[in-house]
Amino acid sequence: MNFQRIFALARRVIQQVLRDHRTIGLLIFVPMLLLTIGALLFRADPTTFPLGVVNEDEGMSIPLVGSLNIGERIVTALQDSAFFEIVPVTAVDTETKLRDGTVQGVLRLPPDFSAQFLENRQAVLDLRLEGSNPTHSQVIQARVMEAATKALAGLASSGFGLGAQSDTPAELPVSINASYLFAGEEFDTMDFIAPVYIALLAMFFVFLLTCVSFLRERSQGTMERLLATPTTRLEIILGYILGLGLFALVQVSIILFFTIWALKIHYLGSLGLLFLVVALLAFVGVSLGMLASAFARNEFQVVQFIPLLIIPQIFLSGTFWAVDDMPSMLQPLAYLMPLTYANWALRDIMLKGFGLVDIWPNLLALFLYGVATVSVGALTMSREVA
Amino acid sequence: MNAVIETHQLHKHFGNIRAINGLDLQVGQGEIYGLLGPNGSGKTTLIRLITGLLHPTDGRIIVLGQPMPHKGVLAQIGYMTQASALYEDLTIRENVAFFAAMCGGVSRQRVNEVIALVDLTDRANSLVRTLSGGMKQRASLACALVHSPRLLLLDEPTVGVDPQLRATFWAYFRRLADEGTTLIISSHAMDEAERCDRLGFIRRGKLLAEGTAVSLRQQSNTPTIEAAFLHFATMEQTENPSQGEANA
Known about the structure:
The structure holds two protein chains of two kinds. Chain A is an alpha/beta fold. Chain A is built from 14 helices and seven strands. In chain A, helix 7 runs parallel beside helix 10 (271-293), helix 10 runs parallel beside helix 14 (356-382) and helix 13 packs antiparallel against helix 14 (356-382). In chain B, the strands form two sheets. Chain B has a six-stranded mixed beta sheet, sandwiched between helices. The longest helix of chain B has 16 residues, at 163-178. Residues 244-248 of chain B have low confidence and may be disordered. The A-B interface holds A 220-222, 224-232, 384-385 and B 48, 51-55, 71-72, 74-75, 77, 79, 81-88, 99, 102-104, 143.
């Protein structure tokens, strides 16, 4: 073993990396970026949920003690809770407000709520949940339970003599009767994550495939030859989108059928629409790949784009953290990620069974994103091929 | 003369490097014009300017009557790059057919015809990455020829090509010229120069001298093209020493 040779080799490797300013930049900058995003996400303050309340409770008047309205007390307790933002809702518009996302749940207190409670010593809360995000559903139920328990405990101490039977927390006279607009109890976290898995995989592979094919086209000189024919840049780009998009669609069909049949993922909406979303996403993936390849000189640098372009998208597009749950300073970034729109659209289709009428703004956003990226990509292509 | 290529005071600068520095060139139809110069003299830059792949810093280029860059004219131009520039994971036929489709209006029969012309018929269905350097070079020529261009730009087409094949190439170039095709052939191999109709000595982005091989030798009073080139290069350097250094 010759140490001189080993040192000479090490020195050469160091020289090469040092000469590659982009790699140096990525080595320093990307970990800091990813750590910052991660820290902000994991330390995020719990968000407040918009909760609708239909309080029709007429209360009860009890001789000698006075009038009693338990419904009102529960509403007050919910308003005092830091977890909810109370939105007044009527029984009639409950479903529409849940559907359009104004509220995530609606608590309905019927006219005889107080009367029933006094008779049965048991409060059953009728809670209607939006239901597409299982984590949200669970948290809302627990928080409503907490607030209602507090309200009833206050009742006991104010001398209604109700606390007698419920000295131990285990026997609290509150229960929740939950119902769901979309999805529901049988939907678990995997159902919530599956749509974005599909989006992520579709986009990621098409992006890589395009990056590498385009890079090869440049490095083997065929791009120069292609540009010396009457073929326009737009034609080249559209050809790539068509060709690689086909593979994206084949891949997505496999992912889709595997998730539905083998992994038994719940699925509500139309298959055709789902394909449309994925096709648009593939279009974005191809155009992003072309754009990225313009800034890469070799396959090594393409790999470096993954932590820069792909991982932040996974963090920030609502894949694991719903965009509403993200710290407000990161939320604008979510709107910059094409994956965000695909996630919204795919979740709306798969979990809520939404149609084109409901999700078209997301499709439009994806389309515009693709067009913008293609345009910038075409501009970088006309940078003289060195 | 029926000019196929005309450049007027052509400049192409990359930063402070003057790759093409005030070059005037006229090439007529059916001519084989040899661009002769050492590596880095501006041959490839000039060819890429003619295709419109590069935009001139200053000056004008007119190709087949159109100021470049012009996409339409490219259908009439065949361009063979220095490296073979083929899709390695496709067969020869697939490569030729692809570039034919990019130019449009080429029959399948023509694809087979060009492959036969470069003597690759029995390897037509082989993947390019399995070919030898000379075969790649021939396949590359087939791609540049398939759409029967009126102007053929060949950037060092005979580098790494064995003498026998080189002779075949030149016989074919001559035939094309006789049929009216204009050819620009760049080379740093001076011995090939004799086969061109006209030669341009290019150095530091400028034409040093122009003419037939015979006239260039006579003008410089030298026995070989190589000596003629050195003669003109030395002359230019003594006339214009400061500029030579600025470019070095």
